[in-house]
Specification:
8 strands; about 50% helix; alpha+beta; about 240 residues; 9 helices
């Protein structure tokens, strides 16, 4: 069964929600049969790559809250993250465009290292002092730590078109599914879970999706021609 997670590296609830989901997933009896795929969603797609600003300033400007409210929100997020065993810097973080990180995540998906990379991106953005928004080499370092090739990662970052359509396709699909915020979890293309729910809610969703999940039923006749890895059947006369 496949679980798809739409998220953005700049989204703190995606960071927390991933940890809560993984707690439920680790305890799920059919964990070995679950495939997790991360999908792209940008919270701030119109922001230019070089437009970087402090998180508190972004929050006050974008959401019209006071600085005190923004600080209180960050403190609350820090508490929520700590409850999940996550480090979270409540002060001094910055905010910027995440498009390049999403492009690298699509490369990582092809190389089977997507979950490793998104985890490192989250940790770097929310828990570490060095920014992820102003230095491509920082992203390359994280990609290498996730198991990707440095030169291949640099090549992707140097080509704005590389995996751009894949990112946009994910975002279009999110809109089609009715997701206007993240994190957004889709289980077996039948059930949707919105937000950083508790591990208990995720466990219930996994159980419900699994109970209604049915393998493909194959209807065929033994003499029907078909092509396979060894070639195509040739009718005998």
């Amino acid at each position: 069964m496949r679980v798809e997670i739409w998220s953005d590296i700049a989204c703190p609830w995606c960071y927390v929600g991933k940890a809560r989901f993984e707690k439920a997933l680790d305890a799920f009896p059919h964990r070995a049969d679950i495939e997790v795929v991360h999908r792209s969603f940008e919270l701030d797609p119109g922001r230019a790559k070089g437009d970087i600003q402090p998180v508190l300033k972004m929050l006050t400007k974008k959401y019209g809250m006071s600085e005190a409210q923004a600080k209180a929100g960050e403190e609350n997020l820090g508490t929520q993250a700590a409850a999940e065993g996550l480090a979270y810097r409540t002060e001094g973080r910055d905010h910027g465009n995440t498009f390049d990180m999403h492009r690298l995540l699509h490369l990582a998906k092809e190389r089977g290292r997507q979950d490793e990379l998104i985890g490192l991106f989250y940790k770097a953005n929310f828990a570490e002092e060095r920014t992820v928004f102003d230095d491509d080499e920082r992203l390359v370092e994280l990609a290498v730590a996730a198991g990707l090739d440095a030169d291949e990662s640099r090549k992707v970052l140097a080509d704005p078109a590389a995996y751009a359509e894949e990112v946009r396709a994910d975002e279009r699909e999110a809109a089609e599914l009715g997701a206007n915020g993240v994190p957004f979890f889709v289980l077996d293309r039948k059930y949707g879970v919105s937000g950083a729910q508790s591990a208990e809610v995720f466990a219930q969703a996994l159980a419900q999706a699994w109970s209604s999940h049915a393998p493909l039923k194959l209807i065929q006749q033994d003499d029907a021609e078909a092509c396979g890895p060894d070639g195509c059947a040739v009718p005998q006369h």
